Amino acid sequence: MQIQVPFALPNLPDEYGINQPADELVDGINLRSFPFTVTDLSKAAVTVAFSLIDHDTIPVVGFSWIHWLGANLPVTAGQVVVPDNASQTATFTQGTNTLPMIIDQIHQPTAFKQRGYDLTKHYAGPRPRGGTPTGG
Question: Which of 14, 29, 77, 123 pairs as cysteine with 68 (C-beta 3.0–4.6 A)?
Fold first, then answer.
């Protein structure tokens, strides 16, 4: 299995993290997920699950932060393609991120509630200390 992203690792481009214009954030959270492709899957693979877990948060909050969980992404022609902003537009199953730990400190915008959008069940972009990557 191979995972490919359209940017140079290890840095996540600003459009998928906290370094966004304030009017593109929701209560300081970037909801725009990054694209990736999973290839070289077993011929027996039917679906794929993934997790985006940030271990750099351990010194800051005391645990690894879950930014995004996904499951039941269908394999087509031996690969899975997850497009830009899939967290807000795709129909695959998304698990609970770590936002419930701070949900009392933020409010869920009315527009999201009316659409049935739950901030805790989608991508929540990284927020490195000081707004910059912290290694690892």
Answer: 123
**pTM recorded for the entire structure:** 0.80
Residue 37 is encoded by which pair of tokens? 């492709």
The ranges of the chain with pLDDT < 50 are 131-136
State both tokens at 109.
């915008």
- What is the longest distance spanned by two Cα atoms in the chain? 45
Q: Residue 85 region, left (φ>0) first, then alpha (ψ -120 to 50), else beta?
A: left
Q: Which residues of 19-36 are buried (b: 16+ CB within 10 A; e: fewer)?
A: bbeeeebbeebbbbbbeb
- As a 3-state breakdown, the chain gives helix, strand, coil percent values, each rounded to 5, of 25, 25, 50
Amino acid in the structure at residue 49 = A
